[in-house]
Design goal:
Shape: globular
Strand content: 15-25%
CATH architecture of the largest domain: 3-Layer(aba) Sandwich
Largest sheet: 7 strands, mixed
Strand order of the largest sheet: 3-2-1-4-5-6-7
Bound molecules: 5-O-phosphono-beta-D-ribofuranosylamine
CATH class of the largest domain: Alpha Beta
Order of helices and strands: EHEHEHEHEHEEHEE
C-alpha cells in the first residue's frame, strides 16, 4: 500500500531533504507520495520548490497562536490529508506534543550529526558542525530518528558516517554530511513504507524484506 507523506519545514528552509524524498517518491523508489508540505512561513524557498514539483503546500504559522491552537491546526491539516508519515526536514521548533502523540511512531526527523552526540536545543546547522570540529572527532554523519517530545532523542532509524578532514570548515563538513542526509532520509522513509521498522524501546529493528 502506497503511503501518504507530509513534510514539515521551517522559516527560510531550503528544502533539499524534502526534495530528496519527493524525488524518490516520484521516481518510484519509495512506494509513497508526498501529499503535503507544511511551512511555518510563506517565504520558505522549500515551499516554492515543493510547488514546482507539483506538491500541495500550506503555511501554518505558529505566530500569534497558542501552542494548543498551533497543534490543532497542524493536526487538522495532517488528518485532512490522510497522512501516514510526517517527515520533519529543517523544521526548527519542537513539534507540539498533541501532534507527537497523535502520530506516535509515524514522525521522523533528520539531524546533521551522529546522535546522541551534538543534539538538543540550539544544536542546528552551523552550531552542530562547529561543535563537531571543536570536539576533535574524526567522524561525523547524520541521523534519521523517530520524533518524541524532546529535541533529537527519539529512537534512531538510520545513521551514516563521513570523515572529518583536517582542513574542514563547518561549511565543507556540512556539505559532506548533506549528501549522506539525502540518502539516509530516503532509505528510512522507504523502510517505513515497506513496513519494515519496528520500535523496541530505544532501538529500531529493521525487518527483512517480505517476499512478494
Ligand atoms: C539539514 O541539515 C537537516 O539535517 C537539519 O536541517 C537541515 C535542513 O536542510 N534538520 P534542507 O532544508 O533539507 O536542505
Amino acid at each position: 500500500m502506497s503511503i501518504r507523506i507530509a513534510v514539515l519545514v521551517s522559516g527560510h528552509g531550503r528544502g533539499s531533504n524534502m526534495a530528496a524524498i519527493i524525488d524518490a517518491c516520484q521516481r518510484g523508489e519509495i512506494d509513497g507520495q508526498v501529499v503535503l508540505v507544511i511551512g511555518t512561513r510563506s517565504e520558505a524557498p522549500a515551499l516554492q520548490r515543493a510547488a514546482e514539483k507539483g506538491v500541495r503546500t500550506r503555511v501554518i504559522s505558529p505566530r500569534n497562536l497558542s501552542e494548543e491552537e498551533y497543534a490543532q491546526r497542524l493536526l487538522h491539516a495532517l488528518d485532512e490529508a490522510r497522512v501516514d508519515l510526517v517527515c520533519l526536514a529543517g523544521y526548527m521548533r519542537l513539534l507540539p506534543v498533541p501532534v507527537v502523540r497523535a502520530y506516535a511512531g509515524r514522525v521522523m526527523n533528520i539531524h546533521p550529526a551522529l546522535l546522541p552526540l551534538f543534539g538538543g536545543k540550539g544544536m542546528y546547522g552551523e552550531h552542530v558542525h562547529q561543535a563537531v570540529l571543536e570536539s576533535g572527532m574524526k567522524v561525523s554523519g547524520c541521523t534519521v530518528h523517530f520524533v518524541d517530545e524532546h529535541y533529537d532523542t527519539g529512537p534512531i532509524i538510520v545513521q551514516r558516517c563521513v570523515p572529518v578532514e583536517d582542513d574542514d570548515t563547518w561549511e565543507t563538513l556540512a556539505a559532506r554530511v548533506l549528501v549522506q542526509e539525502h540518502q539516509a532520509y530516503v532509505q528510512a522513509v522507504k523502510l517505513f513504507a515497506e513496513g519494515r521498522l519496528r520500535i523496541e524501546g530505544r532501538r529500531v529493528r529493521i525487518l527483512p524484506p517480505t517476499s512478494p
